[in-house]
Amino acid sequence: MPEAASFVLETGVEQPDAHTLHPDTITVAEPKEQEVLIEVAACGVCHTDLHVIKDEVAFPKPAVLGHEVSGIVREVGPGVSHVVPGDRVACSFIMPCGDCRHCAKGLEDICENFFNHNRLGGNLYDGTSRLSRNGEPIAMYSMAGHGTYCVVPSRAVFALPETVPLADAAVLGCSLFTGYGAVNTVASVQPGETVAVIAAGGVGLSIIHLARAAGAERVIAIDIDDEKLALAQELGATDVINSAETDPVEGVTELLGHGVDVAFEALGSVPTVRLAVDILDDGGRAVLAGIAPVGHTMDVDITKVVRRKLRILGSFGAPASTAMPEVIRLAAEGKIDLEKLITHRFAFEETGQAYQLLNERKILGRGLIETNPALS
């Protein structure tokens, strides 16, 4: 069983903030059946982890966070044959069990065992964690990637071609994976459609990038940060609206003469969800991909939704078995610009500082912890 340097979120912290993570040495158990032990090359910095750090999303503690991982396979458990030790891999943050009623229908993105065992309990699917400290279990948020080693259910592990940089590939497993699910699986964006993306952070920028790749004719980025809007244009936005300076509903109407076919909400707040509905054209689709703090509810005009035949759709990741190979293919073919999407890179010991910068809205695109540069 390897010892892993990891950043741990402790229990008993009265007011968690982005400084709460601290380095420690923990024990990582060997992989069990249909599991893979990975030496981590890199792990993404995601706002969902920040929600857990700030206690806006309930999760057991002590815990190791981090759910956007790439690395090298070091050991495989019984029943694993699609990857072998030495393989370069990226992992999807949704780790489908393959056995529950949703997985049986192909709805891996709402796998019951993933949510019930992992996101509620911090465990893998036998009801236990693979992490411990002095014999006491430590909760795993997805695969617990903010460590030098992690154990991942095999259905969430995907081999990488040599043409995809190993460290950069970490962001394929959440930011791009979530964006792909929103654009291709839920919205099914068609060539020639008009799209708006509200909040040009890591996921929002991925949605912009992928919407253009899907053939959207106009992609309007909406944010309050001019630097993020400039980056959105580099990644494919045809138009930008600074909503701190211009009413976005009026701005969209001025650009198009009407609303958009699809509006993506990538922040997770009551005002931005309402805005996603308000900027739709008749018959349009509002796709909600941002995670909101617990208890926040939608505030939309019901009559508008009914009379204008609007659709409000939730999107959480994607089916891993089909979406991850497609995201990896797009990266291998150069259709995803990982260098532009990753705007901030951090050393492993800077993990706490990375989340502080994320909390201060100072990370423009995606932040990346380069856990072990020697592997890349």
UniProtKB/TrEMBL annotation:
Essential cofactor(s): Zn(2+)
SUPFAM superfamilies: GroES-like, NAD(P)-binding Rossmann-fold domains
Keyword DNA repair applies: no
Keyword Metal-binding: yes
GO function terms (MF aspect): oxidoreductase activity; zinc ion binding
Keywords: Metal-binding, Oxidoreductase, Zinc
Coiled coil: none
Matches recorded under Pfam families: ADH_N, ADH_zinc_N
Superkingdom, taxonomy of origin: Bacteria
Residue ranges of every copy of the Enoyl reductase (ER) domain listed in the record: 18-369
Family, per entry: Belongs to the zinc-containing alcohol dehydrogenase family.
UniProt-recorded name of the protein: Zinc-binding dehydrogenase
Organism: Nesterenkonia sedimenti
